[in-house]
Design a protein that fits this description.
With about 55 residues, the protein is mostly helical. It is about 55% helix and about 0% strand. The longest helix is centred in the C-terminal third of the chain and has 32 residues. The structure holds zinc ion. The site of zinc ion (ZN) has 7 residues, from helix 1.
């Protein structure tokens, strides 16, 4: 059986979190963290943009 390696860190793949993508638990957690950070950043930016629009009127 072929041993798969994580596509991000090239470490040993302990489990498959995404079908078709070899991503280990560590990288999966990191990705989830980055995604939530990105989401929060997007939301915060949207709020900031709305308040700027409010003040310019
Ligand atoms: Zn990894």
């Amino acid at each position: 059986m072929e041993r798969k390696a994580c596509i991000i860190c090239h470490g040993e793949l302990d489990s498959t979190h995404y079908e078709g993508y070899a991503i280990c638990t560590e990288c999966f957690d990191l990705m989830e963290y980055l995604m939530s950070e990105y989401l929060l950043m997007t939301i915060t930016r949207r709020e900031a943009g709305a308040s700027v629009e409010m003040y310019s009127k």
